[in-house]
Structures are given as C-alpha cells and as structure tokens.
C-alpha cells in the first residue's frame, strides 16, 4: 500500500497496453483538466512506465501489470475511459491537497 | 468473496491474466511501433500492384522487398531493443536477416523469436563479461562481442531456426485457410471477442492475426485476418445499445465513446461497458462472428493491418473493388451486436441495477 499527497504530484503517467492508443487519449484529456496546476502528464506502455512518475493511472484490468512494473508507485485503476470518478478524485487531490493511496 | 480461498483464487487468476497480458504486450510491442511501415507497405501495395488503383511495374518492385525484408527486420530490431536497448536492437536486426534471406514468405513470427533471443544473448554477455574488461578495451570488446553473437545467430537462423519457423508459419496459415474452406472461421470470434475486452486486443491482433494475414495478403493481395479483430462493428453495436437501453449513469459518456471507438479506432473505450455488464460479451461474439461470416462470404479482405481499428483506417487499406464486402461486414456486425445487446439489456427494463458495481470497484481501487 503506497500513498502520495496530492500537492506533491509533479508527474502523472497514464499507462495502457501499447502506450499508443487509449493512454494518449486520456493524457490529452487530463492535460486539459490539469492545465492550471504544475503537473506533467505523460503516457506510456504499461510494461515501460518511467521511474520518475509520481502517480500512475491505468484501466483496472491492467493494474496488476502496472504494479509489477513500478511496485513503489501509487497506481490508481479506473473503470471507464470517460467520466470515471477517479479522474475527479485526482484533480481534487491536486487542487486541495489530500492523500491519494492505492 | 468472504473466504480467503476465493480471494486467493481470484488473485491467482489475476496474476495469470496479468502474465498472459504481459506476454501479449511484448508481442504487440514489437509490431505496434512499426505500424507506420506496415501502412506504407499497404498503401504502396494497394496502389501499384497489377490489380491496384494505378498499376506501375517500377513501383511494384518495392512491394516484395518491403514485405520480405524491411518489415521483419524492423520487428526483429524492435524486439531486440525491448530486451536490451540499442545493442539488443542491432543484434536483433542482424539475427533476423538470417531467417528472412531465402524465405519466400514474410518471417514475422521468426523475427519475433530470433530478435529478442539474440538481444538476450548479448545482454547475458554484457552482464557476465563487460565488468571484467580492462579499461581501454571496452569498445573493442563491445563491438566484437555484438558482431560475433549476432553473426552466429544469423547463421543459426539461416540454417536451423528459419526452416523451422517457415514450417510453423505455413502450418498456421494453412490452418486458417482450412477454417475458411470449411466455413468455420466465424468460430474464431468466440476466442477473439472475449480476449479483446480483457485487454488482449493488441496481443491477438498484432501478435497472431497480423503475421498470418501478411503471409496471406502476399499471395492474394488481401487478407481476411486483418479484418477479424479491428472490425469496429461489434463494439459500435454494443455502445449504441448502451446509449438506448443501458444504465442511465452510463449513457452520458456513450456518444463520446462511440466517436472515439468508430472514427478514432480506439476500441478499448467500449471494453469497460462490457466488463460492467459481462453478459454483453455474448453480443460481441455474435456480432464478431456475423461480421467474419459476411467477410468470408463476400471474399472481403484488407491489404494491410488497419491500426488503429478506425473506419477510416480500414477503408484506407481496402483493396479496389472490395468496399462492398468490408462495409457490409461492419454494418452487419454492428446490427447483430446491437440487437443482441438490446435483448441482453432487456430493452432498458433492467436499468435500475445501474452502474453500481463498477463505481464500487473504482472507489475500492
């Protein structure tokens, strides 16, 4: 169980199987919604998540793989690609501070 | 889920799925970065082969070398890079030339094996030996170790691995051809559609179907294998049914999802809807099978793998005169999966159960 304070998140990585499709889509959405905060959003393949990520987001089905790639990072899974409550939770934690844990 | 037994079982299932996904991810990871090259080859093929849009004998000469040499070499190179960076990539490419020379079919499968294998041997050597090399001799040892290992793998590939893989690839292709001849190919949807929603879509398509398809396309100018997984019809039908009959909470996000799935080609977007209502998998299977059956009966195929599986990408690699079958297959697949989903969703009557399950899942995560 790892956790991170929303205020300390500098880099979010969205991971998907190939790192080319759905993660890119979500990255551009998150970039828009997190524009006002000093947070970098990147996409990657779930087998190659960069080590400097503070928070990893991926579909629930891929969470186990993401955890094996980066065991010491906070990995949050989401169900839906559009309008999942997890994205709002992340934005709120970054805005107001507060703990995000898996 | 109260007893520890079931929890344990679940986590074992989870681990198994994760490792299958991981293996598939490696296969897809060798092909997907090179899709641009596949598209270049597919477009050149569609345009300039004798039965193409603007036949041209000079430009047609590009088709075979691209398919037989360029594409397998890129896959072997990328496979090597995944294992051991730039040195692995070079070793992978050199080893791959050993299996493509003399082959009359595109050796994708072989490249996926020998590329990473050669890179792995270089990695072993680097781990075991490089730290013992006297300073000043690093470059000499690095270059010659890579050259000798990769060269040996190329020889091994030409003499042993190549012939074995050729038999395997031909066998797989013949197996698919047999299924087509026996009109059994639609049964493949029983495997393809569930695997897709478990996020094995890239593994199935780029790891299995594309390599067989390229071999098939090189003899016939088109391959039905390229249509089996990327067909956006089944997913579109499911989304349409969710829009009309799905849980109210779900509906708001569906129109955006439809655009992203059908036009943008990112199929992943509909998987959660199926995972939230697992019985919809039946609709995906029926839609997929109906699509494959239509493609089979109309003798439809594509010249190159469409990636992403967008309607635009599919139409761009549809051969001249092949539009009717391709479009018909997509429409029929969408119609069948829509009808089946509508029935499975009880035409909206079971809507009260709403989206509760995934919500709970999401907060728990």
From TrEMBL, chain A:
Residues 10-99 form the PTS EIIB type-2 domain. Pfam families: PTS_IIB. The keyword Phosphoprotein applies. The keyword Ligase does not apply. One of its GO terms (molecular function) is kinase activity. InterPro entries: PTS_EIIB-like_sf (IPR036095), PTS_EIIB_2 (IPR013011), PTS_EIIB_2/3 (IPR003501), Sugar_PTS (IPR050893). One of its GO terms (cellular component) is plasma membrane. Coiled coil: none annotated. SUPFAM superfamilies: PTS system IIB component-like (SSF52794). GO terms for biological process: phosphoenolpyruvate-dependent sugar phosphotransferase system. PROSITE patterns: PTS_EIIB_TYPE_2. The phosphoenolpyruvate-dependent sugar phosphotransferase system (sugar PTS), a major carbohydrate active transport system, catalyzes the phosphorylation of incoming sugar substrates concomitantly with their translocation across the cell membrane. The enzyme II CmtAB PTS system is involved in D-mannitol transport. This is PTS system mannitol-specific IIB component. It comes from Labedaea rhizosphaerae.
TrEMBL record, chain B:
The chain crosses the membrane at residues 35-54, 66-83, 89-122, 143-161, 280-302, 322-347. GO terms for cellular component: plasma membrane. Its main location: membrane. Residues 23-350 form the PTS EIIC type-2 domain. Keywords: Cell membrane, Membrane, Phosphoprotein, Phosphotransferase system, Sugar transport, Transferase, Transmembrane, Transmembrane helix, Transport. GO terms for biological process: phosphoenolpyruvate-dependent sugar phosphotransferase system. It is found in: Cell membrane. InterPro entries: PTS_EIIC, PTS_EIIC_2, PTS_IIC_mtl, Sugar_PTS. Coiled coil: none annotated. It is a multi-pass membrane protein. One of its GO terms (molecular function) is protein-N(PI)-phosphohistidine-sugar phosphotransferase activity. The phosphoenolpyruvate-dependent sugar phosphotransferase system (sugar PTS), a major carbohydrate active transport system, catalyzes the phosphorylation of incoming sugar substrates concomitantly with their translocation across the cell membrane. The enzyme II CmtAB PTS system is involved in D-mannitol transport. This is PTS system mannitol-specific IIC component. It comes from Labedaea rhizosphaerae.
